[in-house]
Amino acid sequence: MLREVTTVRYLEPLRSGGSVPGVVEADDLGTYVLKFTGSAQGRKALVAEIIVGELGRRLGLRVPELVLAHFDPAVAAHEPHAEVQGLLRASAGLNLGMDFLPGARDFSPESDLSDLDVTPLEAGKVVWLDALTANVDRTVHSSNLMVWPTFGVHEPRLWLIDHGAALVFHHRWDAATVLATAEKAYDFRQHALGRYGPDTAAADRELAPRVTEDLLHEIAAEVPDAWLTDEPGFASPGELREAYVTFLAARARASAAWLPTGFASRAQLAAEDALRARATEAGRPAWLKRVPNLHGKPDPRPAKRYP
Question: Where is composition skewed (Basic and acidic residues) in this entry (predicted)?
Fold first, then answer.
């Protein structure tokens, strides 16, 4: 089972994401990034964090340790921002902590990380996990990958974080939608690891047989009952856990239908971005097309003059 800790000190909010997690210290002397039940994404984001994160760990991928963290808003009474305080007060009780990786940095597909060794098989395993769990939030624009340990100290490696946007099917549990989604293929052309030549076929051969119902039952059991209550159509948390197991097991068996095999090159991605930008520009009203360029490049459009 996931370890349980108690938050003893609130250090700071992280504003890089919409959920505004916080960095905290706990009674086990650990430092964690705490994701709150009171965030706009709600409990289902935390359910996805546990199921996808723990599945990734069981399949041999690097995911920071997850813990269940008891949180008393009183430890954050010094937080000056009213909106953050509202989030903290709404999150009293059990929340989800992710081990804080000191010195880690965001992975950027555009960076020249020549000392980062990502093999086609490792990239393929990450893409495979994302495809299995319908995680469309690991792109060239938002990788949700960290590089750790610190450069120059130890050999850096990729770590997977932020899986709250995965398991999109659990936002609509009707039978027809779930059945259709079990074999659904998602567009991973802009996956953050696409330029590493992901060998998803090899990843599938290795990982798909390991995603058994027994393994999924163990992982689903990690989710607290309180985060699985009041789901329309389900009489109990146990019944809802079984639905997660049934769906993911069926999706693993159907991997031939959704296995990503094509990834865009950097030049193709740039061309697609330029095409979208031109389409956006063409759809703007005339007055908006004259807005000055604020990105440091000369703007060839005539400046709008005011009387």
Answer: 296-307
